[in-house]
Structures are given as structure tokens and as C-alpha cells.
Amino acid sequence: MDNDWSTLLQSLISAASGLGGVWLGGRLTWKREESRESDRVKKESSYLAILVVAHLDRFINGCLQVSFDDGTSEGRPAGENGYHQTTVTSPKFDPLELDVDWKVLPADLMYGILNLPYRTEQLEDDIANTWGYDDPPDYAETFWTRQHGFAVLGIEVSELARKLRLHAGLPVDTPADGGKCRDDFLREQRDKFVDARAAYELCRAASHVTFDQASLG
User: Fold this and answer.
1) H helices within the chain, ranges in order?
2) Residue 211: which pLDDT band, with cuts at 50, 70 and 90?
3) Number of domains within the chain
4) Which of 48, 133, 171, 187 is in Cβ range 3.0-4.6 Å of 100 for a Cys bridge?
């Protein structure tokens, strides 16, 4: 009887040891796979960030150029017969053309980048709609919408690029010797157009009041 219990006990110990070995082996394999996947995500994130930031920087530079495009060239209307005409092409960015694994990014960054073509398309639609009822030859409303819109978009994309750099551990650009950076110029352009629009609206309101008073008199 004692031999039977001893045999049974040895069998249980052997079975437990076998199961423990299987569990430990599985655990170690899972940890190795987890570490391998973590390394892959880090490498993919770094590669994606370097590549995408380069494209975003070009896009932001394009936004800055558009923000200075008032339809003139060397102080004169860029088009024929005194008409204002764009001199800078609007920037484009198609993230789906890039061969990267977007899923390695946090959802907010991935959405912001992949949604950029739609944001640009919306702005271009606003510009086209404004041009449809704007007055030649200067098309002032159209150029205000275009310059201000791309200044704002450039600022927002610059913040997106900054977050992507931080996520991937890349250095964030800072101006040397405390000079102005690209974002400073974009903000200046944005604020300039906001102030100009406010002054225009105030002047127009004042002219309406003057006209009404004159008609009443």
C-alpha cells in the first residue's frame, strides 16, 4: 500500500514538474516574442517618424510660402491685365504613398497625419468657393482665405510634427541664438490676416453707418 502511495506521489510530482516546465517554457517564449515585437515597434516608429517628419516639414514650408503669396510679383499683379494670380503652388501630402506601418503610432498621431489630405482638401474647397463670388482684379477675399488658411494649417501641422518627433525620441528643432523660427513667421502671418480682416470689417461697418446717416438726412 505504501509503495502504491509512493508511486502515485512520484507520478504527481513528475506531472507537476512537467506542467511547470511547459508553463515556464511557454512563459519564456512569450516574453521573447514580446521583447522582439517591442523592438520591432520601436524601430518601425523611428523609421516612420524620420520619414514622415521630412514630408511634414516640406508641407509646412509650402504653407509658409503660400501665406506670403498675395497674387503679386515684384509688387505688381502677377496675372495679365492687372489681375492678381497665385505665384506659389499649394502644398500636397499623401501619407498613403509612404510604405510604413501606421499602426505603430498612437491613435491621435495616426489620425492627425492620415487626416491631413482631407484637411487640405477642405481648405482648397473654401478657397474655390470664395473665388466664385470674389471681385476681380485683386480677388482680395480669395487671397485672404488662402493665405490665412495655410498659415493656420502650417501651424497645426508643425505641432503635429513636434509631437511625432517627441514620440520617436527625435530632436525638436530650435532656432539658433534665439532667432525666429518657421512657426514664428507662420503665427505672424496668421495674426496679420486676422488683424487685417478685423480692420476691414470695422471700416465696412463704419461706411454703412455713414451711408445710412446720409440717406436719412
Assistant:
1) 2-67, 107-114, 116-133, 140-168, 182-216
2) very low
3) 1
4) 48
Task: Please tell me the distance from the alpha carbon of residue 152 to that of residue 101, in angstroms, as a whole number.
Answer: 28
Dihedral class, residue 82 (left if φ above 0, else alpha if ψ from -120 to 50, else beta)? left
Q: Give domain status of residue 97, yes or no.
A: yes
With a CB cutoff of 8 Å and minimum separation 6, the contacts of 169 are 46
Distance CA 78, CA 86 (A): 7
Q: What whole-number distance in Å separates Cα of residue 172 and Cα of residue 162?
A: 7
CA distance 67 to 186: 8
Q: Measuring CA to CA, how many Å separate 71 from each of 78, 79, 143?
A: 6, 8, 7
- With respect to residue 11, please indicate whether it lies within any of the assigned structural domains: no
Q: The domain containing residue 92 runs over which residues?
A: 20-216
Residue 73's DSSP bridge partners are 76
- Put simply, whether the predicted model's pTM sits higher than 0.85 gets the answer no
Residue 132: inside a domain: yes
Angstrom distance (rounded) from CA 185 to CA 179: 11
pLDDT at 136: 93
Q: Which three cell numbers stand for residue 66?
A: 503660400
